[in-house]
Amino acid sequence: MGRCEILVLVTVFSVFVSAQIKFKGPNEPKEKRTDLLMRILSYKDLENPPNYDSDKITVIEADLNVNSFDSINEASMDFKISVMLHLRWINTLITNQFTSVKSTLDYVELDATKMGHLWVPDLYFPNEKRSSFFNVMTDNKMMRLHRNGTIDYTTRLALTLSCPMNLERFPFDKQTCSIKIESFGYTTNSIQLRWSNISENAVALNQTSLPQFEVTGRNYSHRERTHRFRGNFSYLQADFHLERNIGYYMIQMYIPSLLIVLLSWVSFWLNVNSVPARISLGVLSVLTITTQSSAVNASLPRVSYIKAIDIWMTTCLVFVFAALIEFSMANVLSRNSSSEKEFLQSIFRITKIGRIEKEKNGNDITMGLRHRRKSQTDAEKKDLIVNEFGNINLKPETKEKTEEAALQQNKGLVYASYLDVICRVLFPTIFAIFNIIYWVYFWKLTVN
Question: Does position 176 have pLDDT exceeding 90, yes or no?
Answer without folding.
Answer: yes
